[in-house]
Specification:
Order of helices and strands: HEEEE
Helix content: 40-55%
Distance between the termini: 81 Å
Strand content: 25-35%
Shape: rod-shaped
Length: about 120
Amino acid sequence: MVELVVSIVVAGIIIPSVAVALNNLAAINHRARDQALANTIAQNKVETLRSIGYNSVSSGTVNFSGELPSSMGSPKSASYTVSTPATGEKQIDVNISYTDYGSARAVTYRTYISELGVGQ
């Protein structure tokens, strides 16, 4: 009889602990997935803009929120801003923001494109 009571108490402690651990694991997995998506999208946007060249990139801000997957936490937004900090050079800032379990998250990338090309 004592063994049965001890087994029930142990099971009563272990089962809720495992349930909490699995719930936390799911939240961490979701957060990592969204962060990886945001980083991949930002990096792809930077590479796309760098590949089209200096003369094809216009100054200003462009919203590309429509390219974000619906699985990312809402509200979400994505934009890039092109500025000219020096003659023959353009600065591109890519910003992606989203909400993850009630917390605001953001990914920001910056790159430069010169008139002479990469590494000049």
